Amino acid sequence: MGEMKREIAMEAAVVTRVFPVKGPDKVFTAVDAVNLRLYSNETLALVGESGSGKTTLSRIMLGLLPPTTGDVQIFGRDISTYGRLERARMVQPVFQDPYASLNPRKRIADIIAMPLLAAGPVPKDDVRDKVLDLLQKVDLPAAFAERFPHELSGGQRQRVAIARALINRPRILVCDEPTSALDVSVQAQILQLLKDLKAQLGLSYLIVTHNIGVVTELADRVAVMYRGGIVEEGRVDDVLSDPRADYTRQLLSAVLPVDPDLARLPTVPLMPLPSTQTF
Amino acid sequence: METLFDISGLEIDISMKTGVLHAVRGVSFSIGKAQTLCLVGESGSGKSLTALSILGLLPQGATRRVERMTFRGEDMAGLSERGMQDLRGRSISVIFQDPMMAFNPTMTIGRQLEEVYLRHIARDRKAATAKALDLLERVGVTQPATRMRQYPHQLSGGLRQRAMIAMALMCEPDLLIADEPTTALDVTMQAQVLTLLRSIQVSVGISILFITHDLGVVAAIADTVAVMKAGQIIEVGDVRQVLRSPREAYTKALIDAVPKVTPLLARKAAALAVGEHVHG
What we know:
heterodimer, A: alpha/beta, Rossmann fold, 2 domains, 10 helices, B: alpha/beta, six-stranded mixed β-sheet, five-stranded antiparallel β-sheet, 41% helix, 25% strand, globular, disordered C terminus
């Protein structure tokens, strides 16, 4: 299949981020010379284990953290040339834990409207209309506008977080483990909602996850991160059926399918296991 | 199959401002020697309360009633707090999701492992230290002598989890209660910890009550599965039977809700897990 000329929504070019740490090395390189492209209308999954740098990279892509070196572009323009509000209209985050990401003292309507009002004064009726429209888009009843977060279940809260992310009509959502804090039955609903919204609104998604199930369900392409670098990138079907990098193989071998014959793990003699492996 | 632990008619009530919540209603199950029973269910189904109540560790405001509870053939329901203290950590031990909760942040790992031995087995510090070192090494903690002198916060998540497992094994218990022990870990570390638990089971014949909401974990570790919903066990059976041909619609819905990893991937993954060579 020939590669069409596709619009690039977001691009990281040789992005590196180091953090100062105690110890002989003085610095820790969390993201190491990463190149990453998110095409318009695409869902790209960024997978890797804790500490692989995937969250740091996603924060850089959101403009919440400047890279130490390298460039990030959003729709062909350097991220640092966007103003804060301008950037917020292009790309919005959805976080893992909807118990932590919603202000417990605000009503749902105020939570959803916050990014809109932060961008400047808007007539009250317009705010109301937009909030109700978004509640409908994320399949929540209009009556929820007057409720507080503690009255909602985890899945309902995540819907509110998604509605809030969408109120300024961004073109990109960066979702960091959007379903990890939820029960499986609720996870399936949120994944379906994200798919529906993408089709309806023409969004592009960067999904940060360590859940291969989320990757197969949602993503078109996947980038595998290990120790700050991207070790493999490609179409989901290709990468999962024929992984090239040793780390991808190790990651896939650790996935437990819901089948006793396939998920059984080997038993090993009780001996020291290496706590981290190097490739 | 010999039964190690048996409970029937467990009821747990929680008194709240608005009245009494019947959190667990008529739960019964038994665990065979060297077997793993997985208690699965969504948040709020009562699975953790069930586990805590076995240990006599219910939170304040929660009360337990039970028709019958036996451990190694002896009554456990009528045990005094003192009697429970002798069992906990000695014959029945527990590991939690968050190892930071299980450890005292102000004591070294070594002290905490030794303490279990000193309390239950013998007041012999040398023997306790030797046992702790041996166990840390066997559960795959690197540089065990150094780790013994470290505090919980100085260990990585995976190492803390292993140290907690070692602590739970200090007195060679007959029953291990594992409450979501791998939920906070990423998949590679999860596979390592589950492999470790299975290996321990095979080599020392321990029984495990494993609480999880992850059906992949169930498939990997369970002999028997009990599905909990709204405080009741709605389905119980052999792991193959429950996961392949569930009787209850709720169980089927839980299984269907797990995003499917393609069969091709699953086959390869299984082959990779046992170290076979895979042809593309």
